[in-house]
Amino acid sequence: MIDVxxxxxxxxxxxxxxxxxxxxxxxxxxxxxxLVEIATDKADSELPSPVSGRIARLxxxxxxxxxxxxxxxxxxxxxTAASAPSPKSAAPAxxxxxxxxxxxxxxxxxxxxGSRSATGTPLATPTARKAALEQSVNIDDVRGSGDRGRIxxxxxxRAKDNGNGPASAPSAAAAYAPGPxxxxxxxxxxxxxxxxxxxxxGGGFVPPIPGVGYGAFKVPAYRQKDxxxxxxxxRRRRITADHMTYSKFSSPHVVTVAEVDLHKASxxxxxxxxxxxxxxxxxxxxAFAVVATARAIRENPPLNAxxxxxxYVLLKDINIGVAVDxxxxxVVPVIxxxxxxxxxxxxxxIDDVAKRAKSGKITIDDLSGATFSVSNPGIKGxxxxxxxxxxxNVGILRMGEIQKRVVVVEGPDGEDHMAIHPIMFMALxxxxxxxxxxxxxAFLWRVTEVLEKADFEV
Length: 458
What we know:
By secondary structure, the chain is an alpha+beta fold. It has 10 helices and 21 strands. The protein has helices at 104-108, 126-135, 153-161, 172-176, 191-199, 235-250, 263-278, 285-299, 343-358, 437-453, and strands at residues 2-5, 15-21, 28-29, 34-39, 44-48, 53-58, 65-67, 71-77, 213-214, 217-218, 253-261, 305-307, 312-314, 320-322, 324-326, 329-331, 334-335, 372-375, 395-399, 403-410, 416-431. Strands 11, 14, 17, 18, 19, 20 and 21 form a 7-stranded mixed beta sheet that branches. Strand 4 and strand 5 (44-48) form a beta hairpin. It starts with a strand and ends in a 5-residue tail after the last helix. The model is unreliable at 87-114 and 165-185 (pLDDT under 50).
């Protein structure tokens, strides 16, 4: 009997959600046949069968959150369609896992957590289980505030502070009133309420709750009218919404803008774009911007960092995320060690990830590990805009629309002259917890200098 376990679906991924079983108990499968669809916060993927045989048992339900290396199903190796028992002689197959929506009994078994895994244990993240062991906390007595009642590390620490008992739920009024932070999300709380309460871990300030309000102000309830179209959030849109809300709550954003004269860079691009096109590559201003960004980061390390609980880390590798469109919405694939690549290397990397993103073939590893991000709104962009930081980065650079403008330039005679040049505004959003204005301005000034001098080898 072969145990099929949850694989490591990326260097930063510790768990995944079972979205759809492609097989049932008793099915005969061949090696590499897709067994199950798994979703993570990075991307979705299919898990192929490691061997040929018969599906003996499905161990987890659709909708379950499963940790890496946890068993998903069991396969009786070597059984073929010819050797498998006929339906008349075969013993009745075990019923397939019950979908989460129709399994209230399982959730009712744990009043503290509100939800249990397929193995009967409370739903909890791997870091939460580790913290429970380290803090001698009975995880059965912890109330989960995560998605579907999942227990987080912070829930364990709160339970420890409260004497290893279930965290008490605040009243509805307390959730809106200024004062100490609630211990955990109230039962039945909406996702925005859970998010707001999870972010507020130190007490002293209760943040506004998205879609609900703050203090005396409440968002009016929506009443549908004829012609309105209500569009449910897709899983990708929900992840993006939660990410952006968390980023705005946790990082004090500051935006600074630079005006960039792209006259020399545009002439360099025009002189070389046909040569790149013959190789099937597009020499874009985005590639120049990524090269300039990587170079400026290397000279200004505070922009290549991440914040911890009571410290921050200056990261060695410069991995730049580039926002591109995909069938499921905006994704941010990563160009690793971008400072070690020249213009040609960056062009190839951007072309590769953009094509795979648009074809839906992007992988989880492609979307993991960014240390800084560059956003390009494309030819239908706008003057400039302050992007939201891609967590856990401390900065993101957003390119604006390139427009021809009248500028003042110094001529060979030393006199000032009016000229028409392509101009772009670039906006840097940075996390003021660890990035000071001096470092941010020095970084953006250097990016501008590299682009204006067209200091590239193409």
